């Protein structure tokens, strides 16, 4: 019974780490910087389609978090700025992109 409990606790801790632990090495970007830096970085909008449709960011790759594993190859090989609606979405999308070999340098949080 103790081994099963250790395995369960390990999975719970991994789940909480991936979602709620901040990702180090990325900085918060201003909306103006995101709007004017299209040549230097690839902007990836990881919000839901409904949210990104209401607040369109020009030339951003709109790929919601659940689709990142399948469509990460559509993002060019540049530094990436992640657009997210909350901290959980920012953390999860940054970790997915980094695991796929992409360089995430910043994020922008869009408030509702």
From TrEMBL:
InterPro entries: Rhodanese-like_dom_sf. This is Sulfurtransferase. It comes from Virgibacillus litoralis.
């Amino acid at each position: 019974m103790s081994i099963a409990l250790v395995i369960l606790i390990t999975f719970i801790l991994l789940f909480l780490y991936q979602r709620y632990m901040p990702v180090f090495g990325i900085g918060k970007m201003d909306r103006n910087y995101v709007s004017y830096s299209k040549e230097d970085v690839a902007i990836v909008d990881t919000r839901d389609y409904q949210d990104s449709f209401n607040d369109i960011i020009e030339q951003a790759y709109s790929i919601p978090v659940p689709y990142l594993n399948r469509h990460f190859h559509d993002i060019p090989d540049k530094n990436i700025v992640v657009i997210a609606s909350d901290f959980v979405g920012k953390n999860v999308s940054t970790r997915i992109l980094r695991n796929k070999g992409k360089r995430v340098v910043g994020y922008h949080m869009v408030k509702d």
